[in-house]
Amino acid sequence: MPRRQTVSPLEQVLLTRHVVPWWLYFLLAIITWLALHYIAQSVRPFSQRGSEMVTLLHSFALVGQVLVPLALLCTGVAELFNRLSRRRRLDRLQHEGTSECLLEQLSWQEMYDLVELALHGEGYRSVSGAAKDTELMLQRGELRALLVTEYWRRPTLKTAMLQHALERAQALDAEATIVVCNGRINNDTRAFARRNAIRLIDRGHMQQWLQRAAKQGGALS
């Protein structure tokens, strides 16, 4: 049976967000236990003056050989459980098949990862500069753009919100502003966005990206 070679963008969003793989925690637990157990058995505390460091090291190794590997094992089990849960969720979302349903079930972090992945496909790259968790500074060539996801779950995107996003971009020396919103955007707000060259990533864009991500293994462009 041929091995699968490609990973869809939706799988990248839902499954590969974590940097440390689950199995690495188990490996670290074994290595840590061996190292601390060796220290606990090799180093003996002394009663003479000046042996405080040796006694401290022995005490740390004695307790740490149990607690540190146990903490790593628990973290590894939790990470494995999360990945299995996310895999089942991915299978369910793809089985349901509609971008509307996919969009409603995305968490904030999954939305953030999907938008970032899609913009990377357009040539944008993440750079330092944003100060908030709901903002991301992007750069494409000489153009710096501020991605604002603060209003993702707002039922209605208002002009005042775009004005605030524009002021944030200007304060961070960004030449462009990109705002993500899953809610309603009226004509006045869209007109304000056009006048101020603000790019809106609305519900329609997100549905298109999700539909392509769920059905294709290619880039979100």
Can you tell me about this structure?
This protein is α/β, with parallel strands linked by helices. The protein contains 8 helices and 7 strands, in the order αααααββββαββαβα. The chain folds into 2 domains: 9-96; 107-215, Trna Endonuclease, Chain: A, domain 1. Helices cover 58% and strands 13% of the residues. The chain has a 5-stranded mixed sheet, sandwiched between helices. A two-stranded parallel ribbon has the order 4-6. A hairpin with a 2-residue loop joins strand 2 (135-140) and strand 3 (143-148). Helix 2 (22-42) runs antiparallel to helix 3 (52-96). The two termini are 31 Å apart. Residues 1-9 and 217-221 have low confidence and may be disordered. GO terms for molecular function: DNA binding; endonuclease activity. Keywords: Membrane, Transmembrane, Transmembrane helix. It comes from Halopseudomonas oceani. Residues 103-210 form the Restriction endonuclease type IV Mrr domain.
